[in-house]
Amino acid sequence: MEDHPTSHNQWLTLSLSLPSPFSPTHSSSLVMLSQHQELAQPSKLQAARRRAKKATKKTTKTATVPQPFPWATTKRTIVHTLEHLFANKIISISGTVECKACQKQYDMQFNLQEKFHEVERFILRKIQGMHDRAPHCWMNPALSKCGLCDNTMVPMMPKRKRNINWLFLFLGQMIGCCSHYQLKYFNSHQDIISTVAKNRLVYLVYLGLNKQLKPPFDL
Ligand SMILES: [Zn+2]
């Protein structure tokens, strides 16, 4: 067993370093240490098992999650198609924004059809010049003002990334408010290889959501 040389060395070092009043003979120090080792090993093993269990827990994710919104599916970062949403009479998408200064929160509603066409038209018109990067207006979203103090309001972000209101952010063209980490999370669930530049990540999220809402026809 490969552990032996190490344990033996440890034992040797420890037995020599023990102060003599507490170890009258070599044999007694040996007993003391071997007992100590016997006690120490299982706890080390338990700790290692706990660490392994924790690591497994972290990396193992369920395939589905509780549906965070009626317009979202049970798959992380995947929303329903427009066809499905209209068939289910979901015509308005809501979300919460918060004033950066006074923290007052507001519920906002977007008309799904109207806002989707606005974003889609923008993409169709500008995509050639985007060169796979989000334009300035996507990187710096035009945000609404707080009714109380006139400061800017930002979309509320949930603690858990799986509960991000992607469709609300898309329709309000507020994807640029997401952190680098949140954008990478979205893209990792679309099987997009990790990329660094934020304007590239934002661009990919817009195109990804556009495709989810209106998938291309497969003949
Ligand atoms: Zn305010």
- Give the count of helical stretches: 8
What binds here, in terms of ligands, is: zinc ion
Question: Strand share of the residues?
Answer: 5-15%
Question: What share of residues is helical?
Answer: 40-55%
Apparent shape: globular
Q: How many distinct folded domains?
A: 2
Mean pLDDT: 82
Total strand segments:
3
Structural class per helix/strand content? Answer: mainly alpha
Low-confidence stretches: 1-40
Series of secondary-structure elements, N-terminal to C-terminal: HHHEEHHEHHH
Account of the protein in words:
With 219 residues, the chain is mainly α. The chain has two domains: 3-59, no CATH class; 82-213, no CATH class. The chain is built from eight helices and three strands; from the N terminus they run αααββααβααα. A hairpin with a 5-residue loop joins strand 1 (92-99) and strand 2. Helix 7 (180-188) crosses helix 8. The longest helix has 34 residues, at 26-59. Bound molecules: zinc ion. Residues 99, 101-102, 104, 146, 148-149, 151 line the site of zinc ion. InterPro entries: DUF7086 (IPR055513).
Descriptive labels:
3 strands, mainly alpha, 2 domains, 8 helices
Write the layout of secondary structure elements.
Blueprint: H1 3-17, H2 26-59, H3 82-87, E1 92-99, E2 105-111, H4 112-130, H5 136-139, E3 153-155, H6 166-171, H7 180-188, H8 198-213
Antiparallel strand pairs: 1-2, 1-3
Helix pairs in contact: 7-8
The structure holds zinc ion.
Quick summary of this structure?
Residues 82-213 form the DUF7086 domain. With 219 residues, the chain is mainly alpha-helical. The protein has two domains: 3-59, no CATH class; 82-213, no CATH class.
